[in-house]
Amino acid sequence: MTSLAREGFTIDHVGRFVRDSLLNERLTLPIALLAFFLCLDLSESYRDTLANAASWMGGRLDVERIAKAGRIALYLGLVGALISLGKMFVKWTANNREATNPGDWDWEKREIVLVTGGSAGLGASVAQKLLARNPLITIVVLDIAPLGWVPPEGSKVHYYQVDLGNSSDTQFVCDRVKREVGHPTVLISNACLAHSFAIMESSYDDIIRTIATNLTSTFLLVNEFVPEMTRNNHGHIITVSSMGDHIRGVDSADYYAANVGISELHEALRMELTYSHDAPKVRLTKAKFNLLRSPLVKDESGIANFFSPRLHLETASQSIVDVIFSGYGKTIVLPGSMRYSSTLVRDFSSSGL
């Protein structure tokens, strides 16, 4: 489980406490069952025994209060059970009802993880955590910037410098990766450009490079590497974006437009893998983060950290690494409270409020 301890006390901790206590069906349903048992038409001697025990503990046996508490525990337990069933349903439908078997993933010999934008920031943190989890894993880093970290001695890290905003350069380096390392089985599309210009203040180059790097390159990498995954019915595609497809600022329209495009790519790819290519074990994960503590992102929201915490890179990268090694695809939303606030913002925006 990904912890938000690095970010301090936030609304997610409150939500987790409620889920683990009041909405924990494994706790509340037994309480409801106990209350039901205590309210049965028991023999007078047994009821006297219970009343004496309650008196000894400083209370009294009040059947009406016990029945009311039991009903409340039952309702809370049913809500918790529905939440758990909903999560199970989402997990199995998102993974085409195909379970991951222990031998499906061979991280030391078979798997190749390709990370775009892996020279620094979130991509570098993901690569380093992968190596910490399994030092023998093969990692390919694509980035325009030089590799900003030193791989451990003996690790199988391959770095290729490439401008992902240039389609011909991207195609050339993808051919090199397949020829020199092999076909990636895990594709992490993380490379990103962002600026804070309004639409009419942006240059042609700003707009074209942002869309090309953030969105077009993801399409091209899927086109290059996913066909081999579908042939083997084995792989994992992870697209990293932000809450920008729900919550938008005043500037950086090209960045937000690319986020929406990435979400649409993810959904379209899910449909194609299921219905066109019969590759149910090619997993898909969409990672959506709010604000990262990164030089790329400026926090000008003015919202208190409790409601909208800025995520440490380690928190975001750990969530990606966890889902990779789980063998299942999912939608990662951090902080978790953004699942609900983004829906409200989208609804208010669509209504003109």
TrEMBL record:
InterPro entries: NAD(P)-bd_dom_sf (IPR036291), SDR_fam (IPR002347). The keyword Oxidoreductase applies. SUPFAM superfamilies: NAD(P)-binding Rossmann-fold domains (SSF51735). GO terms for molecular function: oxidoreductase activity, acting on the CH-OH group of donors, NAD or NADP as acceptor. The keyword Heme does not apply. Keywords: Oxidoreductase. Belongs to the short-chain dehydrogenases/reductases (SDR) family. This is Uncharacterized protein. It comes from Lasiosphaeria ovina.
